[in-house]
Write a structure and sequence with these properties.
Elements (H helix, E strand, L loop, with lengths): L1 H19 L1 H23 L16 H20 L13 H21 L8 E4 L2 E4 H25 L10
Antiparallel strand pairs: 1-2
Length: 167
C-alpha cells in the first residue's frame, strides 16, 4: 500500500511539473538526451580515430563532432539573442572537439533551461529566416539527432558500440 501511494504521489508530481510547460519540457528532455549522447560519443572514440572518414566527401569523426557543437551553439545564440561561442571548426582533434562540445552545451544549457511555453512563440532569426524560439531550439535537437546518427555509424565502423546502444 505504501509503495502504491508513493508511486501515485510521484506520478502526480511529475504530471504537475510537466503540465505547466509541456512543450518546453519535452524539448528540454530531447536536448538533454542528445547532449548526453553526443558528449559520450565524442569521448568514446579514441584520439587515433578522430581523423577517420568513411569515404570521400565525408567529414572526419572529429570534424563531425565539432560541427555538431558549432551548430548547437549557433542555434542557441539565435534563440537567446546572445553571442554564441566561436568554435574553431578546423580544430578536430579529440581534445579540441571535446572542448567544443563542452563549450557549446555550457552555452546552451541555460537557454533550454529557461525557455517556457509562453516564450516558445517568440520570433527569432535563424540562418536568415524567421522561426519561433521553440522551432529554432527544436532544429538544434533535430540536427543533434542527425549528427549523432552519423557518429554512431563511425563508431560502429571502428568496432565501438555507440552510447545509446550500450547497456
Amino acid at each position: 500500500m505504501k509503495t502504491r501511494f508513493l508511486l501515485v504521489l510521484s506520478l502526480a508530481g511529475a504530471s504537475a511539473v510537466y503540465g505547466q510547460n509541456p512543450l518546453s519540457t519535452e524539448l528540454r528532455q530531447g536536448y538533454n538526451e542528445m547532449k548526453g549522447a553526443i558528449a559520450k560519443a565524442a569521448d568514446e572514440m579514441p584520439e587515433a580515430d578522430y581523423g577517420y572518414t568513411p569515404g570521400p566527401g565525408s567529414r572526419t569523426y572529429g570534424a563531425t563532432v565539432v560541427h555538431a557543437a558549432a551548430v548547437q551553439a549557433a542555434v542557441c545564440g539565435a534563440a537567446s539573442g546572445k553571442q554564441a561561442p566561436r568554435l574553431d571548426q578546423s580544430k578536430t582533434g579529440k581534445a579540441d572537439a571535446v572542448a567544443a562540445v563542452k563549450a557549446a552545451f555550457a552555452f546552451c544549457d541555460p537557454v533550454y533551461a529557461a525557455m517556457t511555453d509562453a516564450e516558445a512563440t517568440k520570433m527569432v532569426k535563424l540562418f536568415g529566416g524567421d522561426r519561433t524560439m521553440f522551432g529554432a531550439l527544436d532544429i538544434g535537437v533535430i540536427h543533434s539527432n542527425e549528427t549523432y546518427g552519423s557518429l554512431a555509424v563511425y563508431l560502429r565502423a571502428k568496432s565501438k558500440v555507440p552510447p545509446t546502444s550500450q547497456r
